[in-house]
Amino acid sequence: MVNRAESPIGLRVTLSRRYVRSTDVARDLTDPRALDGYVVTASARSALERLVDGLDAGSTQRAFRITGPYGSGKSSFALLLCRLLTAVDERANEIAKASGLAKGTAFAPHAVIFMSGRRTSFSGDLLAAVREQARMLGMDDIAAGAAKAGTDEDPGLRARSAIDLLDRLSRDTISADGRRTLLLVDEMGRYVEHAAANPRSEDPSVFQQLAERAGGRGGAPLAVIGVLHHRLAEYVAAMGGVIEAEWTRSADRYEEIAFGDSLEQTLHLVAGALEADPSHTRPVRDAARRLFEEAFQHGTLGGDPADVAAIAADLYPLHPAALATLTVAARRLGQNERSIFGFLQTLEPSGFQRFVQKM
């Protein structure tokens, strides 16, 4: 019999590398291991299926906003989407196929322009992103036009120039190599907050203009996806009826894709995050399955019993009641995945790491 002190659980159960740090899309775009251990949740699966249709060549709705609370996995999903669209990462395709997402690999190749939101002029940053993309593609006239437009002090003219040059870049790109263009804006809410608070330095209609340019006609080579923590109108809710109504019109131009959370989704995330030594004995795995079967019978867990039973052994050493409590606590904190994996990483007295090192 193995002595517990000589073989703590922590030597046999570890946390996947991808959950030790949060996702930074700009940083991780070139990291070949950034998607290792990624779990396609129900929200991610639904979003991919909708985007396959939305980014189709004949679609007239090519502007989307992915909305969900802090830590709900939106940035990780954005990274997966970038990898699928650029068609250069076989790992992303493997993840999609393994999750039953045959449609997930059906995207036409795209040139992705990525922006990370900050509290400054969106049109100014968009011009900088267009300039950099044009420079990389050898489109020097567009790069020069973006540099010149960036010096314009009129926010309305600057916004129109940014969208016109982005549109021109997308058309020249598809003519040159057949790729469509996706503008992906992470933390888009920061740009919205700045625009709403500084109408003299940013044209608030820039987001509406962008969505209208991307959609409204089939065959458009441009699409835009914004990633936000709240709905657009919520960022300006305290600024009065007229301003809020204006932003509601902008929001209506974007089809919303909601990222939510559920207990079943949490179970799959945790199962994907915990890496167990295959030397676990059959009694341990069988005991884990029995625990989760009993949890369903007592109403502690919901969802599909067969689905969760299939991953029950991968949830060891977490008890079903602990997982149910963790999900509720994370939802109350509004951090979801971030709180869950913070618990799995922490060495605090009641944290997961302290437990597995002692037991």
From TrEMBL:
SMART domains: AAA. It comes from the Bacteria. InterPro entries: AAA+_ATPase, P-loop_NTPase. Residues 60-302 form the AAA+ ATPase domain. This is AAA+ ATPase domain-containing protein. The lineage of its organism: Bacteria, Pseudomonadati, Pseudomonadota, Alphaproteobacteria, Hyphomicrobiales.
